[in-house]
Task: inverse folding
């Protein structure tokens, strides 16, 4: 049996992600648009994020660990919803990013932490150890 190199593994992951994006575009009607997030954040922070939706001209991304959102336009400008009267207003990118990562250190993680299966398993184990029922 051949051992996969990290490059081989990443190539497989990229290929599967591309196929998943095609499926989402065809059956769900929206394909993830990672470009704005990649413009705003350094690459070492990307693995913590999930693409959630297109909302008009905005793309919404949810951080897997903090569960906070970033709302970005195609040019990576940041927005916050201020209610029906004001609607979406542009906000300072530093403020938006800091708000999205708020509390991550208290969870024992960093902005570089990956939201992956290994993280989820650690979280489930910690919850179960404290007596919480975990539905996987």
Result:
């Amino acid at each position: 049996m051949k051992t996969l190199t990290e490059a081989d593994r990443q190539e497989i992951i990229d290929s599967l992600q591309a196929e998943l994006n095609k499926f989402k575009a065809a059956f769900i009607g929206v394909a993830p648009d990672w470009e704005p997030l990649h413009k705003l954040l350094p690459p070492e922070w990307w693995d913590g994020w999930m693409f959630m939706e297109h909302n008009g001209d905005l793309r919404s991304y949810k951080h897997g660990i903090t569960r906070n959102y970033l709302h970005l336009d195609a040019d990576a400008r940041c927005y916050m919803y201020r209610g029906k009267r004001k609607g979406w207003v542009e906000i300072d990118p530093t403020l938006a990013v800091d708000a999205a990562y708020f509390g991550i250190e208290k969870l024992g993680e960093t902005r570089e932490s990956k939201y992956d299966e290994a993280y989820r398993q650690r979280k489930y184990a910690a919850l179960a150890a404290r007596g919480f029922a975990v539905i996987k």
In short: The longest helix spans residues 6-28.
